[in-house]
Design brief:
By secondary structure, the protein is α+β, with helices and mostly antiparallel strands. The protein has three helices and ten strands, in the order H-E-H-E-E-E-E-E-E-E-E-H-E. The chain is globular, with a radius of gyration of 15 Å.
């Protein structure tokens, strides 16, 4: 059994690989932060949907990827804050991704939010990832 040192990075890589390979569904190991990240991707229209399967030890999340004319809805994912170098931002410092065409995902004291929601609520936090 291997231990993953960066579960969020692994999550983003699995989604990136599934989108590029043209997979309609992918299954990832369950964690609450991954459910929140998936909720944001669904809310922002990057995936069709997701289903959480709680089976005790082997719980998982099944994600339905989204394609538009055989092109993945997610064209890019980038992990910003990582275990070796955490990146924190204030509400006024939250970057815009591709001039507003993408989203920043931030872990705040109010939960996991998009950059737009965090600016609206005037909260900062750990800058987890960019999605476009």
């Amino acid at each position: 059994m291997s231990v993953i040192s960066d579960p969020i990075g692994d999550y983003l890589t699995r989604i990136r690989n599934a989108s590029r390979a043209g997979k309609r569904e992918l299954k990832i190991p369950y964690s609450q932060i991954k459910v929140e990240l998936t909720r944001i991707l669904k809310q922002e229209g990057y995936i069709w949907g997701y289903e959480v399967e709680l089976d005790g030890v082997q719980s998982s999340i099944t994600i339905s990827t989204k394609f538009i004319n055989r092109t993945p809805a997610i064209t890019g994912l980038k992990r910003i804050s990582r275990p070796g170098l955490r990146r924190y931002v204030r509400a006024r410092e939250i970057p815009r991704v591709l001039g507003g065409m993408g989203i920043a995902i931030i872990s705040t004291s109010h939960g996991v939010l998009t950059g737009r929601e965090a600016r609206t609520q005037n909260v900062g936090g750990e800058l987890l990832a960019f999605v476009w």
